[in-house]
Each structure stands twice: as C-alpha cells, then as structure tokens.
Amino acid sequence: MNNKKPLILITNDDGYKAKGLRCLVEVARNFGRVIVVAPEIGRSGMAHAITMRVPLTYELIENQDDYEFYSCSGTPADCVKIARFQILKQNPDFIFSGINHGSNASINVVYSGTMGAAMEGSISNIPSVGFSLLSHQPDADFSQAQKYIAQIIENVINNGLEPNICLNVNIPKISEHAYKGIKICHQTKGLWKESYIETADPWDRKSYWLKGDYNNLEPENTQSDEWALAHNYIAIVPVHIDLTHYNSIEILKKQGYEA
Amino acid sequence: MNNKKPLILITNDDGYKAKGLRCLVEVARNFGRVIVVAPEIGRSGMAHAITMRVPLTYELIENQDDYEFYSCSGTPADCVKIARFQILKQNPDFIFSGINHGSNASINVVYSGTMGAAMEGSISNIPSVGFSLLSHQPDADFSQAQKYIAQIIENVINNGLEPNICLNVNIPKISEHAYKGIKICHQTKGLWKESYIETADPWDRKSYWLKGDYNNLEPENTQSDEWALAHNYIAIVPVHIDLTHYNSIEILKKQGYEA
Known about the structure:
The structure is a homodimer. With about 260 residues, chain A is an alpha/beta fold.
C-alpha cells in the first residue's frame, strides 16, 4: 500500500450495482487508493438517515491491491460511518458519493441519500462531494461527464474544502461538446407539488405511491443551480451542516424569549 | 367542524404509541383541531428520508369531533406528505412534531426524524416546530415542560414564522421549578465520536451496532443550544432548508470555475 496516494471512500444511494457508482470509481482510481462501501439495495430518498433499530452487516465483494469494494445493509450515511469506524478504522482523505441517477439540485438536496453521505463526511471535516447526473435511467451513459468529474475531484484534492463544507455537483444529461462549463451556484428555491397514486396490494388493501412535479420558485435567477443546469452548465452548490437561520435569531428574541 | 380553529398536524419519529406524542397532542388540543399522522413503528434517525421503493399505507386509530389519529407505514416526512396530499387534501395551518424522547440539539438535528417532519412543513411555508425532551426513557414524565410547550405553540400561532423557517425546541429533563426560561440559540458545533459493537445473529453472522459519545466543540459558547440546555434553559434554534454555504461561493469561484 502506497501511503502517499490519498485514500478515497466512495459510496452512493442507488446501491452497489449501480452504473453511476462504477463510473465514479473509474475516475477516482486515477487519483488514489479507492475503497467503496455502498448500500446493498437502492436507498434513494434516505437523506441523512442512520440505522438505529437493527445492527448493520457488510460484505467484501472485490479486493485488489489498491481497491476494495464492500456492500452494506445500511443507508448512505451508515456506509460512511461503518467505513470509517469498522472497515478502515481510520478516516479517508476524501469522500465522493454517486454518481447519482437523477437530480439532487434545488430542494432535492434535503431528501438525497447521495448528499446525506457527503454531509456525513463534512461533519468530520473530510472533504466530500456528491455527484448526480440528470437522468434516472439505470443504463444512462455517464462517460460524457467524466472529464468534468475528474476536474472537480482534482480541484478538491489539491485545494481541499472549507471546514464542514461539502459540494453538491449536478450534471446535465447532454453530449460532451454541449457543456458550457462548471458554475458555482446557490440551492434554487423550489419544492415538489405532490399527490399519491392509490393502488391495492394482492389482498386488496389500499396503498399509496408518492408522485410529484417540481416547482421552481426562481426560474430566472442566474445564480441558482436549476438555471445553470437548464443552460448546460454543471452546477456546484457548497453545502453546510449548520442549519441555523441566523437572521431569525433577533426576530425571535423580540417574542418574549431570553437573549 | 369549526373552521375558525387552526388545523394542527402532529407527528413524531418515535411512533404513534409514544408517550411524548400523547403529551404534545394534549397541549395542542387547547389551540385547535388536531390531526395526528404518526409512524406505525419507531423511526428515530430517519432524518428527512422519504419512502420511494414501496407504497405507503395508513390506518385510522381514533376519530372524534375535532380530533383524528392515524398511523402510517412511512417516515416522519412521509407522514407530513400523506396527511397533506391524501388524508386531509389540504394544508394544515401548523405542524408540531414530537415530543421526541431524546435530544435533537447540536448536530443531532441532521439525523432527526422529528426535525425532518418539521423541515418538510417549512418547505411549504407551514409554520412548524419540532419538540424534544432530553430523556430517552419511554415512560419519561413530560408534564413539567407542558407550560413552556404551550407558550411556544401560542407564540407560533399568534406570530407565525419567517418563510421556510421551522423551530428546533429542546427541553432539559429537570423539575418544573428549575427551568430558567426559553433561550434563542444557534446549533452547537459538535459531532459524535463513534464505534461499532460487534454482535452475531442466531446463525453466527457478524453484525454491528452503532454507538457513540457526543463531542461538544464549543462548550463555552453561551449562544449555543447545548450551553442553554446545560444551564437549565429550553433551547430554540431557528432552522432553515437552504443548505447553501454562501460564503464559500466566492472562494470556489477562484478555483477556475464560472461566476
């Protein structure tokens, strides 16, 4: 083992068999020793969830000189924890999550297991990045984005990230020559307008599938990640884990609470 | 049905049988018509997770004139969505989540299903509050905090909250006369130092339980929620769902990306 090469942990939320994960591994192996710990099943929408009611299991799938590949029964955030505290027994130098099949721009970041894993890394000051391609197809072609993913990984390895910051990288699904570049953005204000599709199980009990349409509340804002993606830019949003809304502190103090 | 009374949705992450939920319902019924949609099993640590791979089910448990009580197979955030889009077919005026059995102060907010539900409400501008008591005991006595919970609920009903803001309320487990008041705070910088306890299932396969010790990185900061709790204050942190770290945008632009 060459200790000068950075140790890179890779995970995702689509599960260890996902094509996007394999593509990210392929890029990352040019930059260091790679260990993959990815969910054994798809864990989309798991956000920053951790497993508390049952113990976790993990399994070694592949083992080469500078490359280990595990599946784990937990969530993406669980994968980061079990990699650090049980499998590696040390911190990786970097954590890369994805490539997710589907967008994690705008409000999707709060539901995203891909970004839950990246945020988990940032809590412990491990520079972490979540990557997502705007296609839900299991067999999507990720190759056109690899050049840009390599550029972002190289930048993060060379420059690090600010304390407790991770990056949310979203990539439009277009042909390679159509990319206009990489744009630093804020999380677009937006939300899902949702409803449930009623269905019945084989015993005729009703059950309900969530469906929704995305509603962009600032479509003209050129600094938003959705604008960048709609205009063929790769969008990077710096994300932090201090959820405090500091401007509200003074407002609330006027409502009869303590300073 | 009296339409002048506010419509209050209550959920939690400890499940519909939890004592803390019943205590919150008792307080909230003084302020409006209450509908409860709570997870059918404990869903601690579920963060903002939503269910995407299986359909949801729900069940009416209790029905009175101004009070309905449902259990749901989903996460706390699912409970908010299914209440709005399927059960009520309208938005509640307020969402109160909890009372959680255990702290959601400091970094716990990012793992908390209780706060996932409150944040879910805030995305749609429904004034939402998560309440937590600093005791993991299933039979904890919540009565000593009811006066303060009523005060916070009354304030939110009378004043509303800023757009897309919810409140994270944590309550020390002390006797009623020991409370010093309610303090507006920021989320304490801190993290969990974790490890796994190895165990074996009945077929002798290894599995791993997460355990950890909380590490406060700013114990002397009198504006932090952990300081307030340690000094017998009820702590309120205003929480928002824009995860963008705006200060990092300028730093990243210097790394060769677009403006």
